[in-house]
Design brief:
Layout: H1 3-19, E1 24-27, E2 33-38, E3 45-49, E4 52-58, E5 60-65, E6 68-72, E7 76-80, E8 84-92, E9 99-105, H2 108-118, E10 132-136, H3 139-150, H4 158-175, H5 177-184, H6 192-206, H7 213-220, H8 224-235, H9 239-256, H10 262-268, H11 274-285, H12 289-301
Antiparallel strand pairs: 1-2, 2-9, 3-8, 4-7, 4-9, 5-6, 5-8, 7-10
Helix pairs in contact: 1-3, 2-4, 3-4, 4-5, 6-7, 6-8, 9-10, 10-11
Length: 302
Amino acid sequence: MNEEITRQQQELASLIDRHTPNSGKHDTAISSLKLFRYQGEKQPIYSVYDPALCIVAQGAKMVMLGQECYDYNPASYLVASVNLPITGQIIQASHQHPYLSLQLNFSTDQIVDIIKASHSEWGDKEGLGRGLLVSQTSQSLLDAVLRLVRLLDSDRHIPALAPLVIREILYWILQDEQGGASIRQFAVAGSHAERIAKVISFINRNFAKPLRMDELAKVASMSPSSLHFHFKEVTAMSPLQFQKQLRLQEARRLLLLDIPEAANAGFQVGYESPSQFSREYARMFGLPPLSDIKQLRESLAE
């Protein structure tokens, strides 16, 4: 491995270590930047990724999208180009060497602005790929990421400099053949990816309502069969599977907030049958709702 990249990774780990005094997610003075620290390998974490760059400074993580597995570590980065329900699990961490990482959220508008300013190729309207990708971390990308995290030591410079450094970080991702193509496809107006992004946004806003393929096809300006095919190309799931993950993740969140009856959480996220809700919940999380929440609370209290 390049010695300079090794030095950058070590400095990034040191900075994140210093700014994360305890285990968990840490918001920062840079609103789009989150830092993470975990002392040991954790149970799977179910969440919905916003468009974001994720970089591990120490340790390793596995992310599942549908049935596909993405591993990344300090030698690679992960980029989510659109909102996606995922399952994440830290696979390398210890008390001596905790898992340390960062997440930088971004918007399609930021990507469009950079593409226009750099006179880059917009991409193919017909081309389509996964909305989640792992690629090799470059020295240029790490250099920009380091400068962003260093700003946390001097808050007064953040308003003026953070937007410029974030722009540079996104620029370097766009220069990467893999990462750039993954992000760029959603910035092309009228592309298949951009239309699928509209459907993803629609399902995220309306996941508790019955899913009608003809309505989704209208949102995408596609035939139902074309929508199903292209949706699966981006998300590795069918629209129904996508909706189910959103529903069950939201139900789990509601249960953690002390909804008295599991069935109530099921009804709130769109299930009409308590037995179906319990069955699908157990299939996804490994235990029936109340047993899962009890175990989850115990693990969070450790």
